[in-house]
Design brief:
Strand content of chain A: 35-45%
Largest sheet of chain B: 10 strands, mixed
Radius of gyration of chain B: 19 Å
Number of domains of chain A: 1
Order of helices and strands of chain B: EEHEHEHEHEHHHEEEHEHEHHHHEE
Number of helices of chain A: 1
CATH architecture of chain B: 3-Layer(aba) Sandwich
Strand content of chain B: 15-25%
Strand order of the largest sheet of chain A: 7-6-5-8-9
Helix content of chain B: 25-40%
Number of strands of chain A: 9
Shape of chain A: globular
CATH class of chain B: Alpha Beta
CATH topology of chain B: Peroxisomal Thiolase, Chain A, domain 1
Largest sheet of chain A: 5 strands, antiparallel
Radius of gyration of chain A: 16 Å
Order of helices and strands of chain A: EHEEEEEEEE
Shape of chain B: globular
CATH superfamily of chain B: Thiolase/Chalcone synthase
Oligomer: heterodimer
Structural class of chain B: alpha+beta
Largest interface: A-B, 43 and 47 residues
Number of domains of chain B: 1
Distance between the termini of chain A: 21 Å
């Protein structure tokens, strides 16, 4: 699918910590291999038991918008033709304590509201440097 | 803390609209420092410490050399981005003089966004690295957008209306009308004009956002003993705090207490150190790069519960001289000038001295609270001698 903010928009930098989130093709979060603590954004140390070893926890990707804005002023030249656009914060049904930033891609900005139910979807984008296909988590409103 | 340090002098440069200063940022810093030192009745040679925040520009070695300081024995900056360091800088200056590491310390902030670029504009192409991958990828870039997302969650959770944001903006503009230094002097705001203004990042209208400016502000901090024979009435620092709660340093809105203004720890520390309560305050300055987070910061400082914050700021309660708790009496970032909040510190001191252009009668306790958008937060409480 075409990206919500255009195919020329910034790609997520994929390093050892961020790569899985943006390429797994399902919603996955960093989880501690020792205590199971789930944390987002991913980082080097488990904030619960200070372990350095991590696995991942998948989410079914169903959740609810807890915050929503509409950007009207383009702060970057590449977004001049993209405003107004929405940005939301989503809490997931099956992963408490984690909040995910994204865009609701199937509604006009004025129709995006706090409390709305959403489910995850993915934008595909080819990373021109690595040649890999990224699958960037996004959101579709279901209500 | 507890009156072991005092503010002996305050000063600022002329405040300019962004890009309008004829001086460089470093020259603006020197002007503000010179004015603060003269206000204290000290000589530039007496200054032996410098504290600022957020930028590595205008470093103390260069300042001490340019200003002819006899010796430099203390330099410090707090961690953390944005205007959250505004009161931390005062705390570090207090620590320097009350700990005996320096005698006369300048805390300051200088900004020339014409010279060095704006906070409210994004650049870059290709990739959003590190934690920015989780926000910039989705077009969440500017402080206005970030603080709008923080504010939207708070408004939704507690049923806060747009009028509460408007009341914060109205207070800033109201006070700017009596302050000739203010960028918005002679440019009053009405509720109608606020609601008619364009959206920047909904729920923020144009008037929810501070301008970007060029200028500098400074204070001189010393001990009560050294200040006794100086030119101006010394203003004691009763409490100062920097802080962050457990889990509240997480990125991309994953703080444990989201939506937070990072003031839970700071609020508790201010009241514990000082022995006073929020109800005792006479006047407050809240860093408002944007209106909404001020409401969160007020709640976390203990001024009002979230369920009561809309009423707390309504009906002119924030207006000097006779509102229940006058706020941002020089105009603050929105009305006076965006000097990254340091103009709020200067104004908090002026209120204790009785020198404000929107003076509150008989000020005994004057609070300044730093930027709410980034961690760690900070605050400083000044008192009458």
């Amino acid at each position: 699918m075409t990206r919500y903010l255009g195919d020329g928009w910034l790609l997520p930098g994929t390093d050892a910590l961020t790569k899985r989130f943006f390429s797994a093709g399902k919603l996955v979060f960093q989880s501690c291999a020792k205590c199971g603590h789930v944390q987002h954004p991913p980082t080097d140390v488990c904030a619960k038991c200070q372990s350095f070893e991590f696995g991942e926890r998948a989410s079914a990707g169903a959740g609810r918008i807890i915050s929503a804005i509409v950007a009207h002023y383009a702060v970057h030249p590449a977004l001049k033709d993209r405003v107004p656009y929405n940005v939301v914060l989503v809490e997931l049904d099956d992963t408490p304590g984690v909040r995910v930033i994204g865009n609701v891609v199937n509604r006009a900005p004025s129709e995006v509201k706090v409390g709305q139910r959403v489910r995850v979807c993915f934008e595909e984008a080819k990373d021109p440097q690595s040649g890999e296909v990224l699958r960037i988590p996004q959101w579709e409103a279901v209500t | 803390m507890k009156k072991r340090a005092v503010v002996a002098g305050v000063g600022e440069s002329t405040y300019y609209e962004r890009g309008r200063a004829s001086e460089s940022e470093f020259q603006l810093a020197c002007i503000a420092i010179r004015n603060a030192v003269a206000d204290a009745g000290l000589a530039l040679a007496d200054i032996d410490g410098f504290v600022s925040y957020m930028e590595m520009r205008n470093d103390p070695m260069r300042l001490a050399t340019a200003l002819g300081c006899k010796q430099l024995t203390y330099t410090a900056q707090p961690w953390g981005g944005g205007g959250n360091g505004m009161a931390s800088a005062v705390m570090l200056a207090d620590a320097a003089v009350s700990g005996g590491y320096a005698k006369h310390v300048v805390a300051f902030r200088a900004l020339a966004q014409g010279q060095f670029g704006r906070f409210g504009q994004a650049r870059g192409s290709g990739y959003a690295p590190g934690n920015a991958a989780f926000s910039a990828t989705y077009g969440l870039l500017s402080p206005a957008q970030i603080c709008a997302l923080q504010t939207s969650a708070f408004m939704a959770r507690y049923g806060i209306s747009q009028e509460a944001l408007c009341d914060v903006a109205l207070a800033c503009y109201h006070h700017a009308q009596s302050n000739p230094r203010a960028i918005r002097y002679g440019k009053p705001l009405t509720r109608e004009k606020y609601h008619a203004s364009r959206w920047i990042a909904e729920p923020f209208h144009l008037y929810d956002c501070c301008p970007e400016n060029d200028g500098a502000a400074a204070i001189v901090v010393t001990t009560p003993e050294r200040a006794r024979d100086l030119r101006k009435q010394p203003v004691p620092i009763l409490a100062a705090s920097q802080g962050l709660g457990d889990g509240d340093g997480a990125g991309a809105f994953n703080e444990r207490t989201f939506p937070t203004a990072h003031k839970h720890v700071v609020g508790r520390a201010i009241w514990e150190q000082s022995g006073v309560t929020p109800a005792d305050l006479d006047v407050v300055q809240f860093y408002e790069n944007f209106t909404g987070p001020v409401l969160i910061a007020m709640c976390e400082m203990g001024l009002a519960p979230p369920e009561g914050i809309e009423e707390f700021v309504a009906n002119g309660r924030l207006l000097a001289p006779h509102g229940a708790l006058p706020m941002n009496t020089s105009g603050g970032n929105i009305g006076e000038a965006y000097i990254h909040g340091f103009e709020c510190v200067v104004e908090a001191v002026r209120q204790v001295r009785g020198e404000s252009t929107a003076q509150v009668p008989d000020v005994e306790l004057s609070l300044a609270v730093a930027g709410p958008g980034f961690a760690p937060g900070s605050a400083v409480l000044f008192c009458a001698a």
